[in-house]
Design goal:
293 residues; mainly alpha; hpI Integrase, Chain A; 3 strands
């Protein structure tokens, strides 16, 4: 049994108040930290430190958490979707040359992959400049087989780590050629050829910037918002997660079955419904239809 120190309710309260007032952490982040503490103690064979001896939640701890949540108010993170129409505009802009041939192709490939794969930003970018080939997307994680005539028809991506994949089992993402101007297979196959011409090793980041540093979330979001600003959108309303939301929204508008949207986005429940943005015109039409005799 590990020799972890005993944790009282008072100590937990001091901890979360310190996180909120001195470290300026969000309520959701504090909850993750508490979950981490709970996980380590239980894995060590010790009682759950977040509950009392009779296995009931610590009331004062819960009230303090609730107070922090109310003080911070609701999250104001941008959540607008990047639908297929916006994706098409982004790709068209990049093809007209914005940052240079290599970076333009890199961004187009990342955008198309994120949208087509319903990916979270953390699944194809890294945090800061810390790149770990065991978890982050590498050149070797892509496989683009070609047919007898040398044309790519499908694409497989090895996603090794994900937000909901706590055991790091990973999954193989399969994408298929769309035979349209926005095709994940042809776009990424073109980018992969460029990466190989750069004499990249298999364990190098797939998306690496011209200065030879891996593409991280902050840089990706900044470049995305710069492009959206050029197109006349309000950039602060979009972020990396907008591609996943936009993919779900586009799939719903294309009348894909619910179970298929859930499978494409790898949702284990029907929480994907909260990602789907319904236009006001459709709601207006639904309301008018309900009042027709």
């Amino acid at each position: 049994m590990s020799h972890y120190p005993p944790i009282s309710e008072d100590l937990l309260i001091y901890f979360i108040v310190h996180c909120a007032t001195h470290l300026h952490l969000k309520y959701s982040t504090i909850k993750v930290y508490l979950a981490g503490i709970r996980h380590h103690y239980i894995m060590a064979g010790l009682p759950n430190p977040l509950t009392s001896t009779n296995n009931q939640p610590h009331l004062r701890l819960q009230y303090t958490l609730r107070g922090i949540q109310r003080l911070q108010g609701p999250s104001s993170r941008p959540r607008l979707p990047i639908t297929f129409d916006i994706l098409r505009q982004l790709c068209s802009l990049l093809r007209s040359t914005v940052y240079g041939p290599y970076l333009d192709l890199l961004l187009e490939s990342a955008f198309v992959l994120a949208f087509s794969g319903f990916l979270r930003c953390s699944e194809f970018t890294c945090s800061g400049r810390s790149f770990n080939p065991a978890y982050n997307l590498c050149v070797r994680d892509l496989n683009v087989p070609t047919d007898t005539q040398g044309y790519p028809d499908a694409l497989s991506v090895n996603i090794k780590a994900s937000k909901t994949d706590q055991m790091r089992r990973g999954f193989i993402l399969r994408l298929f050629a769309t035979k349209s101007t926005i095709c994940p297979v042809t776009t990424i196959h073109r980018f992969l050829r460029v990466r190989r011409q750069m004499c990249s090793s298999p364990q190098e980041p797939l998306f690496i910037l011209p200065e030879r540093v891996p593409l991280n979330r902050e840089t990706f979001t900044a470049l995305l918002r710069s492009l959206l600003s050029r197109l006349g959108f309000q950039p602060h309303l979009y972020a990396g997660h907008s591609f996943r939301i936009g993919a779900a929204t586009t799939a719903a508008h294309a009348h894909l079955p619910d179970h298929l949207i859930q499978t494409l986005g790898r949702w284990s429940s029907d929480c994907y419904r909260t990602y789907i943005r319904t236009p006001e015109s459709l709601l207006r039409h639904a309301s008018q239809s309900m009042t027709m005799p």
